[in-house]
């Protein structure tokens, strides 16, 4: 299946997205994380698109999605969610499977809470909805949430450096010989664009709103009991395996798989994740 690279206007935002698979196929909506883009799904999309209509947008502030400049567009997770909600409506996506990773999790779970009737199943790849699984690496961010001073903002800037993106986000806990430099090199280039760091620092501060919504996300799980597959890089230095296991608190039938890799598990384990997804989705309608 060919991958098509397209754009969809949502208000003042021009959403870039990748799409492949049959137009009448069951939809899998892939939501990427920080500091990446839909490029992170480049290996997964072809493995799913024989059977499914796969759609992967770039979130506002990431990749090739164009927004008004900072100051005219407020970079919050609520606004990231509202853009994706408008995107799904513009594409008339009435039913879909959610694949959420990292920042994509709080965006996707907002979508699920607002439209539970549309979500057929959830795949979470290193995407938290519980406090369990947060490592000590969150310390500077949590300090900034509690006390948003200029000094605490600056302390979070280290999360955005090329060294952190490459060594902490991509290579930590992974077989480095299997990690293509294309992914982290592209993310580093995105971060060098004008205002990119300030946009990301705005989102780091606003991440606290995601944690505040965890009880609401968990209530959604308890009430609607969506089928959930967690595929987790168990060596992730920020999202520990406990974050995957925590889903069983509210979803006892959740399927949990811990993979011997890092945060960006698709960089090394796209074949395994695709296989687990295809098995899981057989009974999802």
Distinctive features:
alpha/beta; 10 helices; eight-stranded mixed β-sheet; 285 residues; 8 strands
The gyration radius over C-alpha positions equals: 17 Å
The chain-level mean pLDDT equals 97
Q: Strand count, sense and closure of the main sheet?
A: 8 strands, mixed
Instruction: Provide the spatial order of strands within the biggest beta sheet.
Output: 1-2-4-3-5-6-7-8
Helix content: 40-55%
From the N-terminal CA to the C-terminal CA, the straight-line distance is: 22 Å
Q: What's the tally of helices?
A: 10
What is the total tally of β strands? 8
Q: Rough shape?
A: globular
The helix-and-strand class reads alpha/beta
> What percent strand?
15-25%
- Which sequence of SSEs, written as H and E, runs from N to C? EEEHEHEHEHHHHHEHEH
Uncertain parts: none
SSE arrangement:
Layout lengths: L3 E7 L2 E8 L6 E5 L12 H5 L4 E5 L19 H14 L5 E6 L2 H11 L4 E7 L13 H8 L3 H6 L6 H10 L9 H11 L4 H29 L3 E6 L8 H4 L9 E5 L6 H16 L4
Parallel strand pairs: 3-4, 3-5, 5-6, 6-7, 7-8
Antiparallel strand pairs: 1-2, 2-4
Helix pairs in contact: 2-3, 3-8, 4-8, 6-7
Characterize the structure shown.
There is one protein chain. Helix 2 packs across helix 3, helix 4 packs across helix 8 and helix 6 packs antiparallel against helix 7. Helix 3 links the parallel strand 5 and strand 6. The model has no long low-confidence stretch (mean pLDDT 97). The protein has an eight-stranded mixed sheet with strand order 1-2-4-3-5-6-7-8, with helices on both faces. The protein is 40% helix and 17% strand. It contains ten helices and eight strands. With 285 residues, it is an alpha/beta fold.
């Amino acid at each position: 299946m060919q991958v098509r690279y397209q754009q969809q206007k949502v208000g003042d935002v021009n959403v870039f997205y990748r799409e492949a698979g049959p137009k009448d196929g069951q939809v899998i909506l892939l939501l990427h994380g920080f500091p990446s883009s839909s490029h992170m799904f480049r290996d997964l999309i072809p493995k799913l698109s024989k059977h499914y209509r796969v759609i992967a947008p770039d979130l506002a502030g990431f990749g090739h999605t164009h927004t008004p400049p900072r100051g005219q567009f407020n970079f919050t997770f609520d606004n990231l969610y509202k853009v994706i909600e408008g995107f799904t409506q513009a594409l008339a996506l009435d039913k879909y499977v959610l694949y959420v990773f990292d920042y994509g999790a709080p965006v996707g779970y907002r979508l699920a809470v607002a439209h539970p009737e549309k979500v057929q199943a959830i795949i979470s790849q290193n995407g938290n909805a519980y406090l369990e699984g947060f490592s000590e690496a969150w310390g500077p961010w949590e300090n900034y949430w509690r006390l948003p001073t200029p000094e605490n903002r600056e302390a979070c800037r280290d999360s955005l450096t090329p060294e952190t993106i490459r060594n902490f986000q991509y290579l930590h806990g992974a077989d480095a010989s299997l990690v293509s430099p294309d992914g982290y090199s592209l993310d580093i280039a995105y971060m060098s664009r004008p205002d990119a760091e300030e946009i990301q620092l705005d989102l780091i501060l606003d991440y606290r709103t995601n944690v505040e919504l965890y009880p609401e996300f968990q209530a959604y799980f308890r009430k609607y009991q969506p089928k959930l597959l967690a595929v987790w890089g168990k060596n992730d230095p920020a999202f520990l395996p406990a974050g995957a296991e925590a889903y069983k608190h509210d979803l006892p039938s959740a399927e949990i798989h811990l993979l011997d890799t890092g945060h960006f598990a698709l960089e090394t384990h796209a074949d395994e994740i695709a296989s687990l997804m295809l098995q899981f989705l057989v009974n999802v309608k």
